[in-house]
Fold this sequence. Notes:
The structure is a homotrimer. With about 140 residues, chain A is an alpha/beta fold. Chain A has helices at about 15-30, 80-95, 125, 135-140; strands at about 5-10, 40-45, 50-55, 65-75, 105-110, 115. In chain A, helix 2 (about 80-95) links the parallel strand 4 (about 65-75) and strand 5 (about 105-110). Strand 2 (about 40-45) of chain B pairs antiparallel with strand 3 of chain C.
Amino acid sequence: MPLITIDVIRGHDEDYLVRLLDAIHDAVVEAFDVPFTDRYQILHQHEPFELRALDTGLGYTRTQNLTIIKVTSKPRPTEAKQRLYEKITTYLGDRLEISGEDVIVSITENTSADWSFGQGRAQFLTGELPDDTQNAQDKVAEK
Amino acid sequence: MPLITIDVIRGHDEDYLVRLLDAIHDAVVEAFDVPFTDRYQILHQHEPFELRALDTGLGYTRTQNLTIIKVTSKPRPTEAKQRLYEKITTYLGDRLEISGEDVIVSITENTSADWSFGQGRAQFLTGELPDDTQNAQDKVAEK
Amino acid sequence: MPLITIDVIRGHDEDYLVRLLDAIHDAVVEAFDVPFTDRYQILHQHEPFELRALDTGLGYTRTQNLTIIKVTSKPRPTEAKQRLYEKITTYLGDRLEISGEDVIVSITENTSADWSFGQGRAQFLTGELPDDTQNAQDKVAEK
């Protein structure tokens, strides 16, 4: 269910971009423990001047491989979010030689009522999809 | 006030896209009971490989008419959200022959302080716009 | 840390757009009191029909300079948000002659665990970046 929006600088070919989307999806599936068919991705390509990312003093250098990833998801435990950051960075590095310094991720949370995957229905409310939000929140509360 | 971002696959003409935006707006006005002039829409067109949507096992087939709709809104009752999903799907189907299997909606909520509609003012705080957030939350709490 | 997405109508040259991004960044730095290197911006350019903004009855006229600004940020006090709206509008007006009637801002909040600025780490959790969310919330609570 996470909906992932990815913004990159134009100049990479379609093969690179497809592999980039695949790598991010594999990271989401593993970090958030969702089904492989839970894939919802939107890619935007930009002119270099349209993406601006400095480093908040962290000492990172951004290149033409800059990849900004916005994730909208129901609540997830902090550990799952940290796994997501690690896995995205690992897979983009291993498969596409994207430096970890070029990968930025921002997550925004919503709730079960906020999703319709088709047919005008809210599948987490109708029971067509399992609604595990409470479980995820319990896990957070236990810590 | 909802701000709606719509992502579609390139290949439809401007007339189709204008009617698509109109259909979504009509659904928002009716489902959320907002004024007709409460229209804020951003459309992105994509190459086919830039939009990836599977089905989380629901059995839906996505086509070149895939329409991903992201809604940012102050809190709304669950019933209003469900009405929104139904009306968007109905209007896109009736007017543009878009299958319900091609329509995905994701909502993210924010608050009254999070909006400025112009002139650098937060119109829900200044009283220039009615702030009915509390009413909406009361409606949710009553259930 | 705020991540800023800006949507404008195509037709302005790169110099105008760079100055627009600079003006918005200066407003963010001053209103939210963040470091100058806390800059994360994504610009989208659109055909005129792809951006639709009416006025919810406020009496504003939108032109080809329409600028829709989406901000994702950790929680900020209401006063900081209002300062942001004012400063963005002032700077876009003073530097680019953009009317205040053309400037729309929408904020969505997330939390410290929701950010990774590089290297697969959640820098607000690791301590690499100061986590002042609680302070900001205290400021809100004091009012």
